[in-house]
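REQUEST ID: PR-0412
SUBMITTED BY: lab tech R.K.
PRIORITY: routine
TASK: structure prediction, single protein chain
INPUT:
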Amino acid sequence: MKSGGKRLSGRQRHRSPLSGRSILSSGRSSVQAGASTPVVSDFAAAEFASAVARRVRTGQLTQVAAREAFEDLDVWLSGEVHRLQISSADVAATGGFVRRLDLNLRTPDAIHIAMCRRAGATLATFDMRLGEAAQVLGLMLA
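STATUS: complete
OUTPUT:
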């Protein structure tokens, strides 16, 4: 990404949308903890990589741009972030969430909700369906 002809650093690029207080989740959602340190799930990082790779496969992104995105993510993740690993409890909770037919949740979204609940964090998302389901399940939205 560029701003005014100047390439932004990975940290600026990824932290600016939510003032640097979020969990990265494939550009759609994130989790905001009470502390100012961003929290990033391993699942979110994998989803981000999958989304970038899909854009390369569909011709929407060059391999060079994809490698830059991966590098930016790696730099950001190696900085001032707290890494949150998925747990078996998250997977178990996910199963319960997707069985709630009133929520219409897909597994990846349910995993984000489960991890957010376990972390005691606030969910920030651009996905309205995910946000609505999260609220029904008692999560706060940023």
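NOTES: The chain has two domains: 2-84, 88-136.
REVIEWED BY: pending
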